[in-house]
Each structure stands twice: as structure tokens, then as C-alpha cells.
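lol ok so funny story. i was supposed to be doing the assay writeup but got distracted and ended up predicting the structure for this chain instead. priorities right. anyway since i did it might as well share w the group, maybe its usefull for someone
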Amino acid sequence: MLLSIAVVIVGCLMGVIDLPKLWRKKEWKEVTVYSCLLLTSIFFGIVAVNLWEFPSPLYIIIWIYKPVNQLLAYITGS
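and the output, tada:
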């Protein structure tokens, strides 16, 4: 639990250091991308420090392409 809090605090500190510069320059796209990547990294950092099992991205790709593959096999008759 303590490591999870540390990950969140470090992520917030990174945001506090970098985001005001982007905000003052009114770089809204950069603020959006930076915030999304920072939140994603904080999430994966919490998953890593708690040693939670996280599914491989390969399973997501298989889940997406399996129906596409079946549709193409049906269309081509193979």
C-alpha cells in the first residue's frame, strides 16, 4: 500500500512540475497527451508495485482479430 501511495505521489509531483509550463503556453494538445500518458503510467506503476496479474496485450489483439478472421474466412470460403 505504501508503494502505491509513493507511485501516486511521484506521478503527481511530475505533473505539478511539467503541466504548469504547458498550461501557460496554452499547448492544450500537449497537456491532454501528457495527462493521458501520466495517468496511464501511474496506473501501470500501481499494478507493477502490487504485483497484480495483468493480461498480455496479445490477448486483446487476438480478441479483436478473431471475429475479423472468421468473417474473412466466411467471405472467401476457406
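Residues 1 and 50 are 8 Å apart (CA to CA). DSSP finds three helices and no strands in the chain.
back to the writeup now i swear
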